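call fold(seq) -> tokens
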Amino acid sequence: MNFFNSRRAGALVLTAAVIFGVFFGSHRSLNGERKKVAGQNENVMMDLETRVGTAHNLCTVAGRYLPPDDESLTALSGDLAYADEHPEDETAFADLVPAARAVIMKLKDAALSEQDARYLSNFETQIESGVDTISRDPYTAAARRFNEETLGGFPARILGALTGVKELPVYQ
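ret:
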């Protein structure tokens, strides 16, 4: 019982409180900043949802002209299935763009009906404009800044990793 009344116990409790405070405060502060930036991604998410819808429509049109075992079509279908099942995985949305571009390139060489040629042109425009819009969205710049400057600086680089604060997704 004398231990709890000693200076050593007091120093131990104070040290534990300071360490807990540093970790808890860092976690809370970094997550607060993360939430502020993450709240700005509404427009980006709408563009990503449009990208998924466009890719589904592209698969439908491509299915009329490309064989079912076509490498680019199966790659796009696989990426779409993954994006549909894992909407929290930001890389799933980025993977759709090259796969969609590959299918579009193949379809440009196919003998499309007039209607499908218009669809293809619209799909390409939607994919490319979405990429451009997302790259210029304020969220993208804010997420990069958060990842590089806030989480990349000292002491956040160490404390963020120790307290489980993750980088924000930067969409392409």
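The longest helix spans residues 7-38.
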